[in-house]
UniProtKB/TrEMBL annotation:
Keywords: Hydrolase
Lineage: Bacteria, Bacillati, Actinomycetota, Actinomycetes, Propionibacteriales
Organism listed in the record: Nocardioides panacis
GO molecular function: hydrolase activity
Pfam families: Sulfotransfer_5
Protein name: HAD family hydrolase
Length: 243
């Protein structure tokens, strides 16, 4: 691990996580991994997501095998390994000690905005679906080891992506490049097989979407889900990077 920077960006769904993955992949010295625990999550939970069987067939379903792959040697000339991780993909009883081999970052978003976006793609949403509760568990696990990981709020990030990316690169001890701010539109070979169901906006994008206020209107159940996750969000938001 000493000659390679391995970054694990932990998010919930419907955040800027896929655009963030595009940003890092566009560096040129970086390989990215898209949601490596997704198949294991679908198999373990039985949850019905779009393209479920295709996703399960596309990845290892044994978490131990996934962790081993995340530690695998990288191709020559690659100095940064970036994994886009979804915290809700982790089992509650999973030993998280392996995460200490990585430079971990928590990426958060206001739960009402997450739920509003999530239910546009799925009929139902529960607190466990949007990752914030699991991000708190991961925060506690990481704090018991090497200290508090950086927390980035998507709203703050989109107001000034360059400042946040420069901060992250400095924290990681790697150089920032303007290539992280723009990328070609379209799919990538690194995209998970679920991309056709979820990545339309990212495929159209050539950079980070400027921040704008969101009008959120939720039904009773979805509003209750967002409020159930708000204490977790507020705990994480109190630790967020402020630039």
């Amino acid at each position: 691990m000493s000659h390679v920077t391995r970054v694990a960006m932990w998010s919930g769904p419907r955040n800027v996580s896929t655009a963030m993955m595009r940003s890092w992949e566009n560096r040129g010295d970086t390989v990215v991994v898209d949601e490596p625990f997704y198949a294991a999550y679908l198999l373990r939970t039985g949850i019905d997501h779009p393209g479920r069987e295709t996703v399960i067939a596309s990845q290892p379903t044994d978490p131990t095998e996934v962790v081993a792959a995340l530690h695998a040697p990288l191709p020559d000339g690659v100095g940064v390994h970036y994994s886009k991780q979804m915290t809700h993909h982790l089992a509650d009883d999973m030993d998280l000690s392996w995460t200490r081999d990585f430079r971990n970052v928590l990426l958060i978003r206001d739960p009402a905005e997450v739920v509003a976006s999530y239910v546009r793609s799925r009929e139902s949403c529960e607190p466990e679906d949007i990752g914030l509760l699991q991000q708190v568990r991961l925060l506690d696990a990481l704090r018991s080891g090497d200290g508090t990981p950086p927390v980035i709020d998507a709203g703050d990030f989109l107001r000034d992506p360059e400042a946040h990316l420069r901060w992250l690169c400095d924290w990681l001890g790697i150089g920032f490049t303007p290539r992280m701010l723009a990328w070609p539109a379209g799919p990538r070979s690194s995209d998970g097989v679920w991309a056709p169901y979820w990545y339309d906006a990212v495929w159209r994008s050539t950079g980070f979407e400027p921040w704008r206020p969101r009008e959120v209107a939720l039904g009773r159940h979805d509003a209750d889900v967002a409020e159930a996750c708000r204490p977790a969000y507020e705990r994480l938001a109190a630790l967020r990077i402020r630039l």
